Amino acid sequence: MAEKEACFKRHARLLTAADFSRVFKDAQRSSDRLLTILAANNNLEHPRLGLAISKKNAKRAVDRNRIKRIIRESFRLHQADLPAADFVVMAKPVTKQASNSEIFKSLEIHWNRLRKLCEKSSSA
Description:
About 40% of the residues lie in helices and about 20% in strands. The protein is α+β, with helices and mostly antiparallel strands. The chain has a 4-stranded mixed β-sheet, with helices on both faces.
């Protein structure tokens, strides 16, 4: 994949409260001990990512920022393979103790699972 295609630009982000609300209201869900990811098909030609990492689950800003950095990097690397959907990633309290590789593995599983779920729902 060309470096240009693998960047995380503004159009690939969920920016408005209305976008987040739509995903929370009508979403496919993938969850494990570290993360919950919600996905809702969008009418665009590309996937978008939103992050909901709360202070309740990771009190220190350094922990929240590390989690967000890992999620954005994983999304950036997988966005070419993901369907045209909006994804909202939420961290659970144990995520702050997980290693970077554990979080990457968890995200890999979620992206594959959600790819299949979104394809099923769009064909139905």
